[in-house]
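Request: Not sure, any thoughts?
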Amino acid sequence: MQNKNLQKYVSEVIGTYILVFVGTASVATALYIGVLMGIFQVAILWGIGLALAIYATAPHSGAHLNPAITLALYFLRKNDMDIFQVFGYIVSQLVGAILAGISVLIIFGPFIDRFEILNKITRGGEGSELTASAFGEYFPNPDVLPHESGAELVNAFHALGVEAFGTAILAFVIFMSLDPKSALHKTSGLAPIIIGLTLTLLISLFGSITQAGWNPARDFGPRLVAFFAGWEKIAIPGPHGGFWIYILGPIIGAPIGGLLYDKVLKITDKK
């Protein structure tokens, strides 16, 4: 049993690493180098990263890759998990996300330094959430709206609602893929692609508002790396003190999306 659990935890580390590295590296490439232009191109790469991570880890751990999804499955499906396994999954996801954040910092470090010099940004100072946004999310997206005007458009409760709503949609599709009688489940090998495209859609729609986190590990892991890499209070607690939004929002939204599918659309056998 212990060896089987260990395999699941390692699988979650690897899968979350793939997802977060591909996604944050795409943001870093767009932001610091300027090769990728526009939210949609970044969103596509996030979607590809998620699909690859699911293909790689689904046979071993179920490819949760997200503490909010793990908690939603535990409460709504029980999913043959006890609370200790839930804890193991979440820790594994955080480890994978932290390792991905470290990798991005090492690989793109010289480009971050150059970007800060060219744009006269002091790391950890006012306005440096722009350079930190490749690691953690901010509302509104600092690459779209500057911090001095953005706060008037998106407050903490607005951002919390967007994060919960987007995660609910993603969880709805994931729960659909787990239903043996759903059309999505019957597509078998295509389910990871559909889930990845759902992520692409959600980032394209909401990335300019909250950067579209939907995943506490994806945000907090790299954000923690940014904190120790010099962004400090800009990373945690963030310029609006709002890093908690990217933890609480998905945790609220995932069970709502899963419950909606289970109670409204899930096909059950009639007795």
Notes: The two ends are 36 Å apart (CA to CA). The chain has one domain: 2-265. The mean pLDDT is 92.
